[in-house]
Specification:
- The chain is mostly helical.
- Helices cover 56% and strands 3% of the residues.
- The protein contains 13 helices and two strands; from the N terminus they run E-H-H-H-H-H-H-H-E-H-H-H-H-H-H.
- It has a two-stranded parallel ribbon with strand order 1-2.
- Helix 2 (20-31) crosses helix 4 (53-65).
- The protein is globular and about 60 Å long.
- It starts with a strand and ends in a 5-residue tail after the last helix.
């Protein structure tokens, strides 16, 4: 490989509260305390592009009516899983864990499971496949411990995601630090739909064969 060691930003959003869903956790927790709000939220339709405000509001309302914060982080929320797999009796059989009541609590809710078992496993597998070493500076022990010890009011003053981290970048990186700190958050989702349509790596053919099988 051209590079032997890669540096990544894994942990930055978790430790410094950068995800939008963290900001929604407190309101979600409060709404689920009201049976009236839970009933009304279940009638909210999902409309628009997945990244649109209307779609995000609909997803939040479905979580209020469903399994709470667990539905916000799920690939298939409980209402969707039940429609897709009605024969899976146990798909929502267990009681969901208690909803986090703050951004920091939502972060702590995710770290042991989703972050460690899904996100870190993903980059671990990919880096081993590419035969490169991967390092996550944000997860260095002293830095991670310091971030976890800070309250949300310091990590996100006035509710601004990753405000403390942005401030550190602005003051410690000469030249481009200010521009980096002002940059909007940008996702990097895998373009699966395009790969399926172009049959990239045979993915489209594999899906077509599966869906056309006797027991898809």
């Amino acid at each position: 490989p051209l590079a032997k060691v890669l540096l990544g930003g894994d942990g930055g959003d978790e430790l410094f509260l950068g995800y939008e869903r963290y900001a929604a956790a407190r309101a979600l927790h409060a709404a689920r305390e009201s049976p009236v709000l839970r009933a009304a939220a279940g009638r909210m339709p999902l409309v628009g592009h997945p990244k649109s405000l209307a779609s995000k509001l609909g997803r939040w309302c479905q979580a209020v009516a469903g399994r709470g914060y667990e539905d916000l982080v799920a690939v298939f929320p409980s209402w969707s899983a039940q429609r897709l797999f009605p024969e899976w009796v146990n798909v929502v059989g267990n009681e969901p864990p208690a909803d986090p009541a703050s951004a920091a609590a939502a972060r702590d809710w995710e770290l042991p499971g989703h972050f460690r078992s899904v996100l870190l496993r993903k980059i671990d597998h990919a880096s081993m496949l590419a035969q490169v070493e991967f390092r996550a500076p944000f997860l260095a022990g002293p830095l991670a411990d310091a971030a976890l010890a800070l309250p949300g009011s310091i990590l996100t003053p006035r509710g601004r995601p990753k405000a403390l981290l942005r401030s550190l970048v602005r003051t410690t990186i000469p030249g481009e630090g200010g521009a980096i700190a002002r940059r909007r958050k940008s996702g990097f989702a895998i373009p699966l739909s395009d790969w399926f349509r172009r049959d990239f790596g045979g993915l489209g053919s594999a899906v077509a064969d599966l869906l056309g099988s006797a027991d898809p």
